[in-house]
Amino acid sequence: MTTSTTQRHSPRSKVTLPALCLAVFSFLLTQTLVVPVLPSLAAALSIGPTAVGWIVTTNLLFGAVFVPILGVLGDRFGHRTVLLSAIAVMTAAALVAALSTNFATLLAARAVQAVGTGTFPLALTIVQFNYADKSQRSAMGWLSGVLGLGSAVSLLSGGVITDLFGWRGLFGTMALSGAIAWIGCYFFVPRTSRPSKSRKPIDWLGTTVFVIALSALLLGISQGNSFGWLSPQIATAFAVATIGACALVVIELRTAAPLLDVRLLVKGNLGLINALAFLIGFISFLFYIAVPIILLGTEHAGGMGLPLVEATLYMVPNALAVFIGGRLAANLVHRFGERATAILSMIFLACGAVVMAVGHSSVWAIAVAYVAVGAGIGIGFSCCSQFVPTLVDSAHIATALGINTMVRTVGQASGTPVATAFLTGVAVTDASVPTSATFFSLFMFATAMSTLGACMCILIRTTKRRSCDGHLDTKAIVHEPEKQVPARRTIQ
After folding, report:
1. DSSP three-state, residue 483
2. How far apart are the C-alpha atoms of 376 and 349, rounded to whole Å?
3. b/e string for 254-275 if b means 16 or more Cβ within 10 A?
C-alpha cells in the first residue's frame, strides 16, 4: 500500500515533532500526575486508601481498552483526525474531573481521560509517515524518551500543584496541557492517510467482546490481592476473561474487517516484541511499587523513612534515564539491530535488579540501580516502538502499535499485584511488614524475569529489509524472510 505524505520540509512540519511530544506529554500528566498525592486526595475526598487507588487503576484499565480501538480507528479514518479527537475528549474529561463534586463523577472522568493513552501509538504512526531514515529514528527516540520525562515532571510537580491550587488544580493542569497540545497538533501535525474508501462497517461485536474480556482480565489482576486470588469474584473475572478471549479469536478470524487482528499478537517476530513489551511493563512496576516503599516507608515498616522531597530526588534520575535511554535506543537499533538492543535493555534491568537485591539497604545503591533500571525501560520501549512498524504494512501500523501499547499496559497492571504480594509477605514470609528478605526475594524475582526476557530476545530473527527510501538496509529486521514489507513512499 502506498501512502502519500506531507512535505517534511514545509514550514509547519518543522514543529510537528514538538507538537506530537506535547500530545504524549499531556497524556502522561493525566496518567501519573495524581500518583504522588494520592494520600492528599483521599483526605480531601474523605475516602479510604483502597478507593483512592481506583483513581489510578481506573485510568490504567480503560487505557488498555481504548488504545487498540483508537489504533484501528486511526488506520481507517486518519491518524491526525483520531489523535485530535482523543486529545479533545481527554481534555474535556479533565475539566469534568476538576469540577466534579463527588467521587463517582471523578472516577467516571478518569475512565474517559484514559482515551489519551492512544496518543502515543498514534504519534508514533504519524512519525512513520512523515520522517525518514535518521530523522525518523531520532523522532521516535524523542517520543519514547518523553515517556520518562513526563513521569519526572509529574513526580516533581504533583505535590507543588496540590499545595498551591488544591487537588482540583491537578486536573486543571491536565486540561490546560491538553488544550495546548490540541492546538499544536491541529496547526502543525499533517494528515498521514486518507480515510478508507471501502468504508467497511465497524466491528461492533468484536469491540464489545474485546472490552468485556480485557476489562475482566485487568480487574481480576488489579484486585486479586484485595479480594483474594481464590475468591469467587476473582475466579469469575478470570473465567469471563478466558471465555471472552476465546470468543474474540473466533469472531475476529471470521470478520472481514476485524477490530483486533489477533494474528498481530503472536505472528513471528511481532509476537516476540509484544511479549517483550509485556515483560518490560511487568518488570518496571515491580520496581515502581517497591522502591518508593523502601525510601518512604518508616523503619518499622521496612523502609528508610526519608522525607518526600529527598526520596523524590533519588527517584527522578530513574525517569530521566528512561528519557535518555529512549533517545539513545534509536542509534543503538540502527547500529546493532533490534535483537541486540532488546537484549541490552534486559541486561540493564537484570543488573539493576541484582544491585537492588544485595544493596537495598543503601540509598546510593538504590539510586544507581534505579538509573540502570530506567535505562533498560527506556531502551526496551523505544526498541519496541521502532521494531513494530517494520513488521506490518503501512495500513496497519497504528493498529499494531496500539496492540503493543495495550500489551505493555497489561504487563504494568500485572506487575502491581505481584509486587504487592511479595511486599505483604504472601510470597515470602508471614511477617506483616516487608523485611530485608522480602526485598531480596522480590528483586531476585525481577532478575529472573529479566534474564528470561534476554533469552527470549535471542529468538528474534534478524534479516534484511528495505528502508523507507527503498535502499537495502542490512541492519533492519522484518517479520518473515519470505514476506518482504513494501517500502512506504516519502517525499524528500
Report:
1. strand
2. 5
3. ebebbbbbbebbebbbbbbbbb
Cβ pair 2, 468 in contact under 8 A? no
Cα 244-246-252 angle, rounded to 5 deg: 95
Q: How far is CA 165 from CA 157, 170, 187, 401, in A?
A: 12, 8, 31, 37
Per residue in 90-118, pLDDT (tens digit) is: 999 999 999 988 888 999 999 999 999 88
Q: Are 87 and 178 in contact (CB under 8 A)?
A: yes
pLDDT in tens, 146-158: 876 776 677 667 7
Q: Which helix (H) or strand (E) holds 422?
A: helix 397-423
The answer to whether 70 and 116 are in contact (CB under 8 A) is no
473, containing H or E segment: strand 472-473
Retrieve residue 91's grid coordinates. Answer: 481534555
DSSP 2-33: ------TTSGGGGGHHHHHHHHHHHHHHHHHT
Distance in angstroms (rounded) separating the CA atoms of residues 63 and 55: 13
Sequence-distant (≥ 6) Cβ neighbours of residue 23 within 8 angstroms: 83, 87, 119, 123, 181, 184, 185
Rounded-to-5 percentages of helix, strand, coil across the chain:
75, 0, 20
Amino acid identity, position 422: F
Report the distance separating Cα 26 and Cα 425, nearest Å: 37
pLDDT level of residue 323 (50, 70, 90 thresholds): confident
CA distance 403 to 260: 8
Helices (H), ranges, 189-267: 204-227, 232-253, 263-266
Beta bridge partners of 466: 472
Cell of 167: 487537588
Q: What is the CA radius of gyration of the chain?
A: 22
Q: What is the pLDDT of residues 409-433, one digit of tens each?
A: 788 777 877 887 787 754 434 445 6
What's the rounded Cα separation, in Å, for the pair 83 and 120? Answer: 9
CA 77 – CA 187 distance, rounded (Å): 19
Nine-digit cell at 244? 471472552
Q: Is the pLDDT of residue 467 over 50?
A: no
